[in-house]
Amino acid sequence: MADQDLSAELAGQGYQLVGRHSAVKLCYWSRESLVRGRDCYKGRFYGIESHRCLQMSPAIDSCNLHCRFCWRNQGWENDETMPEFDDPELLLDRSVEAQRRILSGFKGDPSVLAERWEESQTPRHIAISLTGEPTLYPKMNRFLELCHERGITTFLVTNGTNPDALRALDPLPTQLYVSVTAPNEEVFRRLTLPAQEDAWRRLLESLAIVRDLRTRRVVRHTLVRGWNLGWVDSYASLDLLARPDFIEPKGYVYMGRSRQRLGRDQEPSHSEVHGFAERLAGRTAYRLLDESSDSKVVLLGRSKEGRFLPGRTPAALEPPSGPPMAAR
Questions:
Q1: What is the C-alpha separation between 46 and 48, in angstroms, rounded?
Q2: In 37, 125, 144, 158, which residue has its Cα 20 to 30 A from 56's Cα atom?
Q3: Whole-prediction pTM
Q4: What is the set of domains in the chain, with CATH numbers?
């Protein structure tokens, strides 16, 4: 990792540094799944098991956006290349080792079922997100291949400004997320502070690529009150360009480093996110399939069929919390 100060800061925040440019961090919901049996919204929406989910980034100090709403560290400067990088075999092995180190303290906890802890030692899902832009890791294809060979499903989250990397993905991740965090170029520039002049053009190019990728595809809208919440027709046009399987309108959360850039009043309520999702559904012919008020996120899709990962069913998930969607 190029920036040793950034490395020390990440370690102090609970990241387990892996190799030269990667990190693993225990997700809040992995802890909740172990201690209280509650899965995150990805468990509810798609059927992943949060206690068996490993959250990591293969490019913690490389990103070409400086999003105001990002709660992660932003210690990089216009990094689009990784001149030195670790082998994907090493990266995967050490990431699993790091996850096991993080989870070691839960063994013997009376609130954690022994069977559930044992399951957590063998991750069955990897969320490739955290901090930085993961598609800048040049060995992503082999990393995904290794995960799938070991029976690990993959959710890859990208900011969409690296279309060449999306074209080159082989194999494809189990589920590909593209963050569309602005309705137009002007808002995009003010909110994400891109390093490249053509970043918006790159995002539009990526959305056209995503449309034809034969994997599970999701467009996520992170909504910030006073910045990008609204413009439903413009978001609908972008969504229809990509034609994803699912759309996730999700509310910004006032936490982490984002508190240095935004105020608490920029955090929308779940009802605002829900209202946005209803209007977006009306303009795209997508349906409201589910929602999680805990995470301020709504799931839109064309059909409820095919929503869950293979081998997972709605019956395996905990019931929704709070009143039914229609009652809100």
A1: 6
A2: 37
A3: 0.91
A4: 4-314 (3.20.20.70)
